[in-house]
Amino acid sequence: MTTAQDTVTIRPARPTDAPAIAAVHQDSRRATMPYLPPQRRTHDEVTRWIREIVLPESHTLVAVRGPEVLGYATVQGDLLDQLYLRPDVRRTGIGTRLLTEVRRHRPAGLTLHVFQLNTEARAFYAHHGFRVVATDDGSGNMENLPELTLRWTPSPGAAVPPGSP
């Protein structure tokens, strides 16, 4: 039996993916973080940011089914800067697959920041072994929302097997 997840591939992002990545970014934030102020940036502005800043400065992976970009993750050093999915593919294992591939590229560990209000993301990362290492009042982010810094460090001697969550 083939599931929707079976047809998903994780690959490095290409500049031509920028419009689709921008759409995932905007749609996901709108659907999963209703506490954020309305998006002020246009789709074209977000696309330009993805193409000119995110892709050149980050290791970016996309989850695709055929030509469709379903989600993406960006990493700078050991910082998982972004992991977003289209709202209609959440809770299908695609986020876990993206995270697994990111971990494969950063086997020494990962750090990330998450809004304290983002309880679903916090639960996702806790499920995958991330632990709170710091808190802040939000004065350092554009949204001025309190954040948590989370860290995943593999157990000594443990490796992340290819394809495992």
TrEMBL record:
Mind listing the UniProt keywords for this protein, alphabetically? Acyltransferase, Transferase
Superkingdom as given in the UniProt entry = Bacteria
Q: Report the InterPro entries cross-referenced here.
A: Acyl_CoA_acyltransferase, Bact_Acetyltransf, GNAT_dom
User: Which terms in the Gene Ontology molecular function aspect does this entry carry?
Assistant: acyltransferase activity, transferring groups other than amino-acyl groups
Q: Where is the signal peptide?
A: none
- N-acetyltransferase domain location is 8-151
**Pfam families from the entry?**
Acetyltransf_7
PANTHER family in UniProt? AMINOALKYLPHOSPHONATE N-ACETYLTRANSFERASE-RELATED-RELATED
UniProt name for this protein: GNAT family N-acetyltransferase
